[in-house]
TrEMBL record:
Segment forming the signal sequence: none
This protein's record includes keyword Membrane: yes
Protein name as annotated: Tetratricopeptide repeat protein
Taxonomic path: Bacteria, Pseudomonadati, Pseudomonadota, Gammaproteobacteria, Cardiobacteriales
Positions of region (Disordered): 290-401
Source species: Cardiobacterium valvarum
UniProt entry keywords in alphabetical sequence: Membrane, Transmembrane, Transmembrane helix
């Protein structure tokens, strides 16, 4: 949901005052003051050399000033893009990191998109100016291009975040889709509000400049020359006035993008009348240590709803915690989408830009379950060798057979733990849960840290990983969980499954995509299959799993009702890989689709 206009305006205002944003506003303001002061020193040198002490002119900035300005620009672009991604992901607080919800690669692509847009908008005025067509025409073109840039400004981050592709910032349909997701009327009102804020703050800056700074510049330059360019000798009131002006300008830029981002689609307002969950409630939900009161877990054959797609939002901390709790109770995240592919006739078919709308997953009869490929080079499953002093095996379907002190280890692989180690691990989990219940998050996470390092297998110590990942998601934890899921850990797979729908598959090791896609297909999570195999041929054109992954993608399309796109993929697989070890599977699935059956 997008919220109300008044609510979004207030949220954008409050969001700029979050500590994470105030830090960068003050930091960039300080850098602007430093750059401006150094510029005054360079200008003083220039005027003294020309003996023009009674005039004021402008000179090009020196390389060191350009360097500071480049740092300021990068900080602004990184922080505004990250803020937009965090707001879309329902984060209420700004991060102290310049990049927390987006990657360096995302930032580079976004900068490329901004550069291409600037070149596109500046091409016409540049050509007219150099051809000396006419000052009036050039002036009109400059104003028109500036107006277009201002009109598109609020939609650019959303257009990019929807697909993480620089070309979407130049693509009219993508920009129109971004504006449409906000709402035409809401977008126009947003532009009016931004214009009003810009006019108000701009007037305040201009007034403050004229009243307190403009008339002092000659005296400041004389002070710089008299002190031998000792900038600490400049009067303090100069720095105070310059800092206020710079801070106002930085706050305005942050507010414009924050107010725009609060109108982007997000899912944090499913019920505006519900009070916000307390830290205690979020922690209890995240650790998922209790049992459902009335609802029983769905059966294996129950239809599952599709997860939220990557094009709508990136994960939030709270939604990660909710996903962890759902994984503990074997429920699936809500949502209904329809997977789509690009032109199926493209050789080879690339699964990219999955658009989603109105598709419902359906239950697959037992006799039509798709065959699972056995990866010949997949990592071996966890060795479950017997050790001395191990605990006796217990039936997890009968909770009364599990000792009370080991209740928290139901989802751990205790076959590789001695009884003493199990008891110690259970006590640590219980102690961490107790800290979580009292809001002592850092203390509880510190207890779990020794069990979630690189030396501890997530499949074995899953309860510790589940709690820590829900409250402190990190890329290193996610990678270990993915590897464990690829090796066959169902618990690890269930925990990270929502993330698999959002992550860019190019960031995954190529070898784990097939086993993860097989697990997704086994659980009838066909959107996850498509998300994992998307662009595999483009990213790994020579990988031995290429045919298997597209076979899984074709089956996912077929089970999603898109037989017209699944059949060409299978036919191309047969044509390109006639001697593949699984060509019989490809041929059988093709024949079934041609006969109107679902493989």
């Amino acid at each position: 949901m997008n919220g109300t206009l008044i609510g979004n305006t207030l949220r954008g205002l409050v969001y700029t005052l979050r500590p994470g944003n105030l830090f960068y506003i003050l930091l960039t303001a300080a850098l602007i003051v430093v750059a401006g002061t150094l510029y005054l020193g360079d200008l003083t040198t220039y005027l003294l050399a020309r003996a023009e002490t009674d005039t004021f002119t402008w000179i090009p900035p020196t390389p060191r000033i350009w360097g500071i300005l480049a740092v300021i620009f990068l900080l602004f672009v990184a922080k505004t893009l990250d803020n937009a991604a965090r707001i879309c992901a329902s984060h209420k607080n700004a991060s102290f990191l310049p990049l927390s919800e987006v990657t360096v690669g995302d930032l580079l692509l976004y900068l490329i998109g901004l550069l291409l847009l600037a070149i596109l908008l500046g091409a016409a005025p540049f050509i007219c100016y150099n051809l000396d067509i006419g000052n009036n025409i050039t002036s009109y073109l400059n104003r028109a291009c500036a107006l277009i840039a201002c009109l598109l400004l609020p939609a650019l981050p959303l257009s990019y975040l929807n697909e993480r592709n620089a070309s979407t910032m130049l693509d009219f349909p993508s920009l129109a889709t971004a504006i449409g997701s906000i709402g035409i009327l809401r977008y126009l009102i947003l532009l009016i509000l931004i214009s009003g804020a810009t006019a108000g703050v701009g007037y305040a800056i201009a007034h403050f400049w004229q009243q307190h700074l403009a008339g002092q510049l000659p005296a400041i330059m004389d002070s710089i020359a008299a002190s031998g360019y000792d900038y600490s000798k400049i009067p303090l009131h100069y720095y105070q006035h310059a800092a206020i002006i710079a801070a106002l300008a930085c706050w305005l830029i942050t507010y414009i993008y924050s107010a725009a981002a609060w109108t982007y689609p997000r899912e944090d307002e499913e019920d505006n009348n519900e009070p916000a969950m307390s830290l205690h409630e979020r922690t209890r939900l995240a650790i998922a240590s209790g049992h459902p009161a009335t609802t029983e877990p769905p059966s294996d054959n129950a239809p599952q709803e599709a997860p939220v797609p990557a094009t709508e939002s990136s994960p939030s901390r709270l939604r990660r915690a909710i996903a962890a709790a759902r994984a503990a109770h074997k429920t699936a995240p809500p949502g209904k989408q329809e997977p789509q592919l690009t032109d199926p006739d493209a050789p080879p078919p690339l699964l990219r830009d999955i658009g989603l709308s109105n598709a419902a997953d359906k239950t697959v009869p037992a006799d039509k379950q798709e065959p699972q490929l056995t990866p010949p080079d997949a990592p071996p499953r966890l060795l479950r060798g017997q050790k001395t002093n191990t605990a006796p095996a217990t039936d997890k379907n009968e909770p009364h057979l599990i000792p009370p002190e080991l209740e928290l280890l139901k989802e751990a692989d205790v076959t590789r733990m001695r009884l003493e180690e199990q008891q110690t691990f259970a006590r640590v989990l219980a102690e961490a849960d107790e800290h979580f219940k009292h809001g002592q998050i850092d203390t509880g996470l510190a207890l779990l840290a020794p069990y979630t390092d690189a030396d501890h297998d997530p499949a074995v110590y899953f309860p510790a990983y589940q709690r820590r990942y829900a409250l402190q998601p990190q890329d290193t934890l996610l990678h270990r969980l993915m590897v464990a899921a690829a090796r066959g850990s169902a618990h690890c797979y269930d925990l990270i499954q929502p993330e698999l729908n959002r992550i860019n598959p190019v960031e995954l090791p190529a070898d784990i995509i097939r086993p993860l896609a097989q697990q997704a297909a086994k659980q009838q999570q066909y959107l996850t299959v498509l998300a994992l195999t998307r662009n595999f041929a483009k990213n790994h054109p020579e990988h031995p799993h290429l045919a298997d992954n597209y076979y899984l993608a074709a089956l996912a399309l077929a089970h999603s009702g898109q037989t017209d796109k699944a059949l060409p993929i299978l036919q191309q697989l047969l044509a390109r890989y006639p001697d593949h070890p699984h060509s019989d599977l490809f041929r059988r699935a093709t024949a079934q689709l041609q006969d109107g059956q679902t493989p």
